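Protocol step 4 of 6: structure prediction from sequence.
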Amino acid sequence: MDKVEDRVGSGSQVDERPDVGATYQLAYQPALDGVRGVAVVLVVVFHLDVGVFDGGYLGVSVFFTLSGFLITALLVGEWNSPGDGTQRGIGLGRFYVRRIKRLMPAGIATLLAVAALAAVGLLARTPRLQGDLTAAAWNVFNWRELWSGDSYAELFQQESAVAHFWSLAIEEQFYLVWPLTMLFLFKRCGLGRHGLLRVLGVLFLLSAATALMASPEVAYFATWTRASEILAGALLAVWMSTSSRPTWPNWWRWLPAASLSIIVVAAIVTPTATGWAYEGGLPVFALVSVALIAGLQIPSHTTRAMSWLPLVSLGKVSYGVYLVHWPVFVVLDEQRVGVGGWSLAVFRLAVTGIIAVTMFFVLERPIRQSQRSVRPIVAAGCAVLAMSIVTVAAFAVSDDTIVADPAPAVLGGEAMMVLDSPPETTAATAPATSIVSGPVADWAATQATTSTTTTTTTVPAPLPTTIAVFGDSVPAWLLRDAASSFDRSDVVILNGAKEACDGMVDLPVGRDRRRTELRPPDDCLDWTVSYPQTLENAAETDLALLVVGQAPVVDHLIDGEWQGPCDSIDWYLDDLDQRVEFLRGEGVQPVLAIPARYGERVAFMVDDDHRERVGCVRSALLGFTLRHNVDNLDLDPVLCPNNDCDARRDADGIHVGPEFAPLVLDEILDDVLALVDTAL
């Protein structure tokens, strides 16, 4: 995160010129650097995903409030301390040059490094990489997160190495607008600091109200909803600037310990991607940060603790730490490093620290402390040029792969039987008829109308076995990637699979390893609707292959409690029982596919105990087939050949790679047909 390195909080006073309207000036306070250190620890440990600080993202809120406080204190101090002793003003040019020198070099260097890592293959060149890098460079990443969203497929891709730039975008939008706003209120509206205090109070309440009424995504990513946290710090700075007292109330000395405790406890107990932080609660949390900052204005045990040299040093390099930690974490995953758990965490932290400290001494500090005068127009031009370079690099390393269309509703059907033509008509004048109707009969009808044979009747060919395939993204993407090369004449596939759509009626809300809630998309139809629709694509369906069981692997909210598959899975089996009864009632033989073990690359989405979880699901489904006399097909031998569960699912450990899809589909179909032959 940005560490404000102007004269506030960086070793000198806000302004050394004579004060005209205010008697209070904010001098450098090491404890405020300590606040940055605490905030960046919360965020970094949260991203380490080691089971500590599930709500560590609240550290971003602390950064917002601290930035609002420091920047506003700087601007108010400058307005009330005119250089010539007569005319007030805010040096916009100086302010923006300082911001550019402070933020741009390290930020642009990080983005170019991410592009380079993608170019050499250490980061996935996902289809959205181009947009991510461009949005990060131009400080609009929070709006990209809000408006573009992630497709279901992107949930299983390598995480974006610049995803953390959303918060930097909000801060830099604030840096762009806030000095202009304050100058307008002071100069054009003629507001004094008391008037400014009232305006800020109204703006804070408006922002808090929008956060309370907005959707979770808007409440978290929109600039206007997060502005309340920045405005809370600004309010404190303006209020303190109106005071003529040389010291603050002694009872303030108790504020830092209490507020810091609340922040840490909140970071521990707050859920990762749901709850009060996404429901308008962050403006209230900002008041806790305000209490922390205010309490640090007077000496106390906590103030001295927050001024501890290692913590202060971390605060000084916190901007670089925030910039580089997430790309480092994405690149240095468990598969690449070869270790996991705390060993991986320590290695990631060491690499992050080395890069951040090096960048601070080699790039950040020399540029920021350079005495060379830079005209604002030159600084702005350099910033635009740097952002343009990142944009060009983003285009150069982006993957222009076009996502394949979903598989058609019907695959196969080229060997439909054509009946003999009646003796009094010829095939040239009378179309042949098929014993089936629907999409699977299209090929037969075409052959009949284009035939030129007039005297020879065709020999009936055996009808293919019609198999309806149901399930979520595992079968949906398998059929999608195998459809173009599918040429079997012994099987017709009715495609009833849809990504992110298990088909269960009223599927309980789930959550991934980061405790992000998982819900079916709005266009997901439950099986009572989708199964009949799929079966309508053929006059008669022989088998229904249910490639299900992925949904219950993650935790689900059952009767008000989060439960994994090893706790209970009866809620899922009850629905599965109804599916089987429906298919049998339609004259369709159900075959239940038993899920395979996951590959190791699934660990970024499913908890580390995914093998145990899948084992519980497999056992439950096998028991179900025995109790209900349902044929089953174990997918484990197909998807984990030679006990290697990543061999054919090297991308995410769940879905079959496109290059393996035709082979895997053929093996599954052969196993299904062999299962039927054995039963007969």
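Step 5 (inspection) to follow. The first strand starts at residue 410 and ends at 411.
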